[in-house]
């Protein structure tokens, strides 16, 4: 019997649900990745994320080859589902195996792929893998989706049930090479008109596991105390890009946290729950992907000041904490969570620039750019999302710095010219002025209460 594994995210061999199922059920297993131009040439992706993906594919390819298999690579301009079914026929697969995805475009694509496969007599087998609990399962007692995090988390925690780690090693010899089926090279960034200017995290499952192990030793036990101190490289796991692309299994993250235990690990599990919450939000409220979840909180007189937007992007606002965050993003494709909140607040509150502009810039720059977390994070800060009561919460960039970077280590690292004549002498919009303007606009928007 022959099976075909369709990799999308989940770019690893170990603890990968669809791969494990395929290896158990078949004597020979082929692996496929389809590069889809709809995604790779889209407006919401940039060099960092594509580079990480290509790096992950190279490592996955090498890992598969080390077990005597091959990663078949195909490139399509659109509609990868036709290519997937074509490859399944070429290798003689009786079933296609894949991990489920929960965003609107992949759901539609996979539905279409299933219909095409089944029309050819090929089984289409999907598995839960990328989340600890699938959105369908986390509902209120009356069967409704949650819109608020805390009750979601309570229910979610009761549903998490992670099996012990299993060994896949004895089965990996079932991965096969084919000489009859065309396979493309993994392309270069240049072929997509991209060039990488950021120093990004390397991909690969070995690297991800090392990072998890190091974090479990150094950061996890004190995560509840250290997680907001951006200058400390162990303050958070920096696993987000590995989690996004599945170069690490989310179950392995959870198992590790449970093994370490204590308040640090518990707090970290809360963050994993936020990720699942935002996945569930977009699953049930897909309109939030392209606009405000609560449109009534979005009707502000948004500023079109392009100079301000450019200064924010470049990390030249005159607030060194904000600028340090933006430069960390521009130089590494990653930004510490505390800073993501601070810079987002400065953009959509102090500068009154629409949060979707920031959301898109993040997606273009982030190596971990992930629709649910990014959209959820921006709508949370803007106050248009799951917790609109936060709308009038405005981060003070000076107080935030005094609290979380009191020795200015983070600022010195990313804004080395701070204090010299090269650095803006005053903020483009002083916080108090921006704050007042926002609050007045907000009051006018909601009207007399
Ligand atoms: P850790 O603190 O070690 O957390 C572990 C994991 O939990 C993370 O890797 C991530 O998968 C998940 N997680 C942590 N915090 C959150 C959160 N608030 N929401 C959802 N998941 C979370 N995260 C992304 O993965 N991709 C994004 O595109 C993204 N955009 C964001 C935009 C804004 C405006 C904000 C405020 C947050 C955003 N986040 C995003 C969430 C969070 O900032 C990052 O997940 C975190 O900084 C990644 O660093 P880490 O892996 O060291 O996190």
Do you know the CATH topology of the largest domain? DNA Cyclobutane Dipyrimidine Photolyase, subunit A, domain 3
From the alpha-carbon coordinates, what is the Rg to the nearest angstrom?
23 Å
Q: Write down the secondary-structure element order.
A: EHEHHEHEHEHHHHHHHHHHHHHH
Query: What fraction of residues sit in β-strands?
Result: 5-15%
Specify the CATH homologous superfamily of the largest domain: DNA Cyclobutane Dipyrimidine Photolyase, subunit A, domain 3
General shape: globular
Classified by CATH, the class of the largest domain is Mainly Alpha
**Low-confidence parts:** none
Number of helical regions: 19
Mean pLDDT over the residues: 96
Associated small molecules: flavin-adenine dinucleotide
How many strands, what sense, and barrel or not for the largest sheet? 5 strands, parallel
Which structural class matches the secondary elements? alpha/beta
Count of individual beta strands: 5
Strand sequence of the main sheet, in spatial order?
3-2-1-4-5
